[in-house]
Every structure is written in C-alpha cells, then in structure tokens.
Design brief:
825 residues, alpha/beta, five-stranded parallel beta sheet, 44 strands, elongated
Length: 825
Amino acid sequence: MGKKIVIIGGVAGGATAAARLRRMDETAEIILLERGEYISFANCGLPYHIGGAIENRDALLVQTAEGMAQKFNIQVRPFNEVLSINRENKNVSIREIKTGVTYTESYDALILSPGASPLRPPIPGIDEAERVFTLRNIPDTDVIKKQVDEHQPKKAVVIGGGFIGVEMAENLHERGIEVTLVEMLDQIMAPLDFEMAAILHNHLRDKGINLILSDGVKAFQNNGTEILLNSGMRLPTDITILAIGVRPESQLAKDAGLALGDRGGIKVNEYMQTSDPVVYAVGDAVEVTDYVTGQPAMIPLAGPANKQARIAADHICGRTASYPGTLGTAVVKVFDMTAASTGNNEKRLKQLGLSYQALHIHPGSHAGYYPGAFPVSLKLLYDPETGRILGAQGVGYSGVEKRIDVIATAIMGGLTVADLQELELAYAPPYSSAKDPVNMLGFAATNQREDLVDSFQWHEVDDLIEQDGYILDVRDDLEREIGYIEKSHHIPLDKLRSRIAEVPRDQPIHVYCQVGIRGYLASRILTQHGFEVVKNLDGGYKTYQEVYRPDEGANCEIEVDESGVAHITCAPTPEDINAMEPVARINACGLQCPGPIMQVYKRMNEMEPGQVMEVLATDPGFSRDIETWCRKTGNTLLSSTFDSKAFRCLIQKGRPLPAGGKSPVMADQLDGTTIVVFSEDMDKAMAAFIIASGAATMGKKVTLYFTFWGLNILRKDHAVQVDKTVLEKMFGWMMPRGTRKLPISKMNMAGMGPQMIKYVMKQKNVDSLEVLMQNALNAGVSLVACAMSMDIMGIKEEELIAGVELGGVATYLGKAQESTVNLFI
C-alpha cells in the first residue's frame, strides 16, 4: 500500500488534488472529507441558475461523491466534518454530521482545501432579518431560488459590488425584480480602477439597476424588509443578498498551529506546503504570492485553486512542480458587457509605491468594416523604465477577455510593452484587425517611452480647469456639440495648422480628442512647430466622459421622502414603441464617433416631422450621444436597446405632440439667441454681429432678423438691375447701399465719423463689419430679412448679399420662442 493522503474539503481545490493524486499514484490511499453534501460543483455558475440562464441544476454538479469514488477509487465521505488536526500524531479528528459519531483518521500527507466563507458582519437587526441570504454553495442556491420562485419578490437589494454582487444583481433583474445594488466604496469591481469601473456603473444604470455607491448598511429594520443606509436613506426590500466579500476558513489551521498571514490566509511555499512540510493547503484559504510584485496576496479564484491543487499533489508524489504566484486574472459578465483584468491595478501600485505609467486606448474588437465591431476600452500599466508589464484591464462588449488573456500570457512570459508590438496574433476581419488592440497598446506605450508624446490623465482635468490651464479640443464640431471639457478651446485637427497662431506659446498645451489618436497627432504637430510642453489626454474624452457622465440617462430615479425612505421609479420603454414602422434605416455599425451621429443628422433633414428612423450602431457611446443630440436638436429618442450584435435606436423627428395639440418647448431646447436689427447704424450693426458670433461659439442657435432700416446692412454695395417703381427707386437712392455706406449713431459728421472709426479699427486690429458678418455666417448664424419690410421699402431679394433668408413675423416669433436671449437693436 502506498501513502495515505487525507484531503479536507472538496470543490476546485480538494477534488482536483484527489484526482491528480490518483493519476500520479495508483497505490495511494486517498480519503476526501467534505462537511457538506456536494464535493465538486461549479460555484461560479450559481448566480446564473438563480437567474434562469442555467436551467438544469444538475449541470452545476461537476462530480458526485459516488461518481468520483468509482472513477478514481477514492474514499469520498460527504457530511464528514474535521474537528481538529493533531500534527504530532499525524491524524485528524472527524465527526459524522448525520450520526454525531466521532473518529480519527491518520495521514502521511494532509491537504487543506477548506475554502472561504461569506462575510456576515454584526449589523444591527441582521439576526432578526428574514430573507437575507448569502451565496456560496448549492444549498444557498436552492434556498434563494426557491424564495424567488415561490414568493416572487418585487424589490431586491444586493449589498456588495464584487463578482457575486454584480452577477446576482443582473440575474435577479433578469427575473423581473427591481434591483438596488449598494456598495460602500465609490466603485464596484475592486480589481478595476475607478475610470474602468465607471463604464460598468453607466451600463448598470442604463439597464435599470439602481446603483448606490459610497454608502453602506447601518441597520436592518422591520425584520429585514427595510434597510437603513449610513446616509439615512431607507430601502424597502423583499429579498436581500449579502455579498460583501469572503474570509478564509483558516480556523482549523490556526488551531493546529500552522502559520497564517496578516489577512488570515494559510501561509504556503511554492510547493503549497504549510509551515508543516507534510501539511499542504490550496484554494481560497491560502495566502499566495503576487506574481508581479512578489507581495503576499489573497486571491480567491477557481483557476489558481485548480493549479495549486495539482502542484500539491505532484509534490506529494515526488514531482518537482512549483507554483510561481498568482496574477489574479479574472473576468465577469455584466449584462451585455464583459470586464476582465490581470496583474496589478493602479490603486495597488500606488499603495506599494511602485513606479508605473498608465495607458488607455479604445480600439475596435475587430475590423471596423466587418459588421459587429465594438470598441474595447483597455488600460495598461507598465514600468516606464524597463517596460515591464504590471497589469491590464479591459471593459467592452466583445473581445475583452481575449486581449486580457494575451497580456496575462505576456506577463508570465516576461515580455515588455515593446514586445507587445511584435506579437503576431491571428487576424481576419471578423476576429481582429491587422493591428490587434494588444499591438496598439504596445505602439502607444512605446511612443510614451520614446518621448514621442507626453500624456495627462482624466483625474488631472479638474485641476487644470481650476488653474485656467490651456485645454485644446481638436475634435470635429459635431462631437463638441454633444459634450466637451469645461473651459476648453476648440480647433478641429484639420484646421490646427492654419490656426496654430491661436494657440498660446507661453504655457503648457493640454490636447484632447475622442479616444486619444487625433490628440496624439495634434501633439506631434504642435511639438514640431516649437511648442515646448504639449500633453495628450490619455484615453481621450471617452475615458473622461465615462467618469463624469451625468446620471440623466439612467432608467431609474431615486426620490427620498422626508422620513428618508427611497422611492425608486424605473421608466420602462413603452412596448408599442418597437411596433412603430421606421421610414428610414441607418446601419452605422463599425463607425466611431461622430460617424453615426453624422449619418443621423444628414438623413433626419430629409424626413418629415413625426417620422421614425431606426439606427444600428456598435459604438457604445452612440446610445448616450444620440440622447444628448436629440435633446439639443428637438428630436425624440423613443428607445435605445442592445442585442448581441448592435445598439438599436428609434428616433422620431421632432417632439411628440401632447393631448392639447401644441408643440411643447422643453427647457433644454431653449438654447437659441434671437436679435432683431432695426437700425442701419454701423456701430449698432457691429454690436449685433459681435453678440451673434459670441453666442454661436457657445453652441447657441442664433438668428439675426433684419427689418426696416436694418435691411440696408444686407444690401449689396453695388447697384443691381431690377424692376422698380418710381417710389421704390427713390427709397433706394435715399438709403445707404451696403455696409460701406452705413452711418454711425453718434458723431456721423456728414460721413466723416464712420471713416474715422474704420481707421481706428484698422489700427487696433479690430475686424471690419464685413469680416464680422462673414465670421457670423461661417459660425452658422442665420440672417433673415423681413419680407414685409422689404416690400414696403422697395428692396428686392436680388439686392441682398448671399446667405440671407427671407421670412415673416412668424419666422421671428418661432425662433424667439426657442430662445433664452432676445435682443432689439
């Protein structure tokens, strides 16, 4: 007979070790002790059985006790709890749970795989609270699923934003329950950094999850049907899931005198041996070594547990395998999105005081011209001196885990960021791009290391704004209309060279675009034109926008009454919206901002009010940008949904009419400026155009309405052959023709005053009225001539300068109704 090995605990660690031991040693006596009924199950799949994605409960059972015993010739003993370990005598004391009988079992080698247990802190009222559950094993799953199936709760509160908390929030929502997710920290998913987690925050809210951050549970009240938060908010609930973390089940090891780490994990060496050489430990209960930093870490993941179990079994059998440490590579599904990470995050590197450089990119998951390409938000952390990769994170709709797996492999292989450029990865349009996102990370990091570009981060923007730093937006006009960084200056990239004189040379220039690529190009232009300090916003406006995005797009609103009770209302999309038949369909899949918006803008101009357009896009930002665009342009976003291939938006031209039949003017539509120009005085005309241009640069829709004497400003400065009556000709002779003949309101002095002002303006480099007018037209200002006044004064349309529209009082009143500023000059 060979060695006698006793294993305490099953699942990923214990069951894997038992199977590996048998494969390595057919003569060994192997005993697996499990205090529960199930010795091997897929604990990562538990939330999805509750949500209904995994219908068959038996599918969660990886191996039964009977099956494992027969297949591997192992003594499998469920419902057997180990009470103590006697290291001196090399035996364990065991109690049969069903009978209460106790006995001892000797060992030559002992493997501990006790796992970890959910935290259940002593919150006031928790012991009296009903329907408060934790999820760790099959029995927990059965209880929660039965509660949902039989009692059909309407409201649920999930406490904790880690893996289990987020997965449970999604799966309860899939069961039609209104879910509130409460997290004490300012973000969910601790392995991610804040700006990456913010993408998930927005997605959860878009999906209808009421997400409450930076708030914790103070007490359970009314037998758990109401939860009091630290902020004073009260949450009514029918079921509560407690998912605030786990702690290692290390009490047995502690009582046996085995060494523990600072966080209670069992200390092991590279062979998974504890402080006692014949006692091994694996899985969630052990303290591992962080592969990147070499520091002790607690990383309770199934993958590492399986590997540790294999190494412990090999070492017991005389093999020399060793465990190099844990990267912590992990992935999670969050509704339609995927989030994954490997190595260290920025928070951890700061805690350890390590030097690092952060890098964000947003490439497509595959070639943009092939349908279904979604942006992937990637963050890379590396040592700026050596180029060593320290960690990476990814969030997106497709291709996320693939890239993180490649980077995890690169870390384990000792590759640097320079090596990422050279990786030859599989490429075909449905799967990737000729330059894979992993290659792009390498290119961008190498540009940084070779000083081709300097960068600044999203969290530095607020300080720049406060200090009046120069921030340059090089995106297109339409992109800026949707949103921009406060106090930033706007020069589109294609106009930067011609307008480079507008950029100050006496201060650092902070450039940004949508995702960082055009910002890099602008940085190179400015640097090579002699600008000394130029920095590009890492990750562009897309990264910044995810962090500072307002919650206005959320489907749920929270109102807290005087007693502190939170009333959460979620506004579902009316079912009949999808039944509306679109008259136009746009497929903008693969296009990045502002491509989809531009297509919508062009097509919308061809549609009639009330007609509906369907738009398909793969840019996640489009679903939010189109909401802002519709609000600013007076159109209606009827719905925004997502399937596995694209975002589908239904947009109605104009605003839907209420029962009264009058078209409402929404508060956020009042973004116009209307100026009535009655005077023909040059100085007043200049004031009108200066104000109009200023308003236009602030994104206002500006209309200048010229009536009576103001019409002379719009007249051409030369005579035009048109048919006129004698009276109309007399009016024409007596009135000034065009801007060069206009008088001024004071000190006209028979025409000398205007000449003096024009001379002074030229000396002071002040634009002439003609230039001001052209600038206004270029900025999109509308010039409208009053048709009625023209008729009275005998002015014909042919006599007006180009770019002038004709309109009546209704035109003016319609524009005035949409304006917050209405001037009379």
